[in-house]
Design goal:
This protein has 8 helices and 4 strands, in the order H-H-H-H-H-H-H-E-E-E-E-H. With 193 residues, it is α+β, with helices and mostly antiparallel strands. The protein is globular.
Length: 193
């Protein structure tokens, strides 16, 4: 007669118990590591969103710079998103106004939040060809938004995001930043190009 002992593996599920126990122990170790790092007041935690942003969405590519900007907004890393704005945009729009005001800005024609248009259309983006006379330090990316306006009607909306190459003098790699002011001016104007 076989006696069942608590915690002893049964013949038909030995592997699942062995791996399950190993994974559970690993998860406990990872959680413990995070708690210790947070409790120790590690200075690197506050900078982490910016580091992650640059690692996975480098600003050397206009599309990646824009996707990183949206990623930062959607993850609530407003300070990291703010670093992706052009110098002129940061000078005119303070970080507090950016964080508090951007969610409130709506397109006057549709009533749709500009933030919703930007974040909701990030999967449908197209780099636009260079226009005649367009300076080399400016790129344009069209975002296509499909959703409902403030009255519940289906809306197809196209927005052009302007980016500026703000690399330091003598640097080889570009550093693309979102020109929020130019983007807003074009939205408010008669044409969105």
């Amino acid at each position: 007669r076989q006696v069942d002992t608590p915690g002893a593996p049964m013949a038909d599920n030995y592997d699942s118990l062995r791996w399950g126990g190993l994974l559970a122990g690993s998860c406990r170790l990872a959680v413990l590591s995070l708690v210790i790092a947070a409790a120790s007041g590690c200075g690197g935690i506050a900078r982490k969103p910016s580091v992650i942003l640059e690692k996975y969405f480098p600003s050397q590519n206009p599309e990646q710079a824009l996707v990183g900007f949206v990623f930062a907004i959607e993850s609530g890393s407003w300070d990291a998103a703010y670093t992706r704005l052009s110098k002129n945009s940061r000078e005119k729009i303070g970080s507090f106004k950016f964080k508090v005001g951007l969610p409130l800005v709506k397109d006057p024609r549709t009533g749709i939040s500009v933030l919703e248009i930007i974040t909701g259309s990030i999967t449908s983006r197209t780099p636009l060809p260079r226009a005649p006379g367009q300076p080399g330090h400016i790129e344009r990316i069209q975002l296509d938004y499909y959703g409902k306006d403030s009255k519940g009607r289906l809306a197809a909306y196209f927005i052009v995001i302007y980016l500026l190459d703000e690399r330091e003098q003598g640097a080889e790699d570009p550093v693309w930043k979102i020109d929020l002011l130019r983007t807003a001016e074009r939205l408010a104007g008669p044409q969105a190009n």
